[in-house]
Amino acid sequence: MHNSIHMKYHFIRTILLLFSSINLLHAQNGFYNNGSEITLTGTSLISIRGNFSNVGTTPNLRLGTGSLYISGDVENNQSFSSAAGNLYLNGTSQQEVKGTNPILVNTLTINNPTSINLTTGITVSSVVNFSNGMVNAPNKNQPLHLLIGASYSSASDQRHVNGYVSRQSIGTDVSYPVGDGSRLQVIAIGSLSNFNYVARYQPGDALPGPFIAGSQPTPLKIL
Fold it and tell me: What percent of the chain has pLDDT over 90?
């Protein structure tokens, strides 16, 4: 048997129906979805202990209100969307999110003590939970993107985005959980009528001072 699990449409649908009573499906050595349509509803949960590949020719993965746990790399070349579901990246070694299509989720939980590298962007509509570890997003065209009304929690020196974050907002203050991989340096933007900005903290030499410490609790703030 290959390291990944290969399933045709009807077989996958049967598996999901089989587990609907306990709302739990474990994939021990990875999960390879080649065009099958998967929808998680209620409190359904899929735990993938390995890599996840989402490919095929038809829109196929909808988290719905369920939860998807992935401990390995994520490759998304098809539709990957969530109305109210949850994506947990919970590996113990470095994980990579890659592929030709971006990922849209309701909530995203980062729980990897090593790091998570984004070569494909993730869009979040509700909350990003920084539970453990760093997110590396070096490409401004593939950032961690927060939609209007989205927020984040528990960012710190050990838990933030080392790279690019983009945000949408209409008339509200927003902040960006960015830093340099060792220090959280939140960037805040005051309320504007309508904007979509991409931000990254880039440390550098400010040349000779003197410099006076600011009075704002946020290290970097645009008013």
Answer: 48
The rounded mean pLDDT for the chain is 81
Letter string b/e over residues 148-172, b meaning 16 or more CB atoms within 10 A of that residue's CB: eebebeebeeebbbbbbbbbbbeee
Q: Does the pLDDT of residue 39 top 50, yes or no?
A: yes
Whether the Cβ atoms of residue 200 and residue 178 lie closer than 8 Å to each other: yes
- The pTM for the full model equals 0.80
Q: Where are the domains of the chain?
A: 9-202+215-222
Residue found by looking up tokens 């703030």 in the block? 221
Q: How many residues does the chain have?
A: 223
